[in-house]
Amino acid sequence: xxxTALLLFLLASVALxxxxxxxTPISKITDNPRDYDGKTVTxxxxxxxxxxxxxxxxxxVDDGTGTITVVTDRALPKKxxxxxxxxxxxxxxxxxxxxxLVILEESEKK
Length: 110
Prior knowledge:
This protein is an alpha+beta fold and 110 residues long. The protein has one domain (23-105): CATH 2.40.50.140. It has 3 helices and 5 strands. Strands 1-2-3-5-4 form a 5-stranded mixed β-barrel. The longest helix is centred in the N-terminal third of the chain and has 17 residues, at 2-18. The chain is globular. The mean pLDDT is 83.
């Protein structure tokens, strides 16, 4: 019985990791910005927009629950590509009820 429970636990853990369950739904971030401000999250979804202006580069990710802008220092992904991004949530500005939330992608440079 103990071996069966252990096996089920291990299979469930692998399934969660493989299915991307460990990502945060974008709607949770945008609906509760103060809960996520300054915290590191992982999101995944489709790239819907890209923008580059001198040193400022960003792209927008849509996971089906919402969209969020990702500021990056790496090469921009192609529009329409599926992506998984890890970074820190930052409130760029707040004006009344309007907030600009972004994810500052973790740099690959160490």
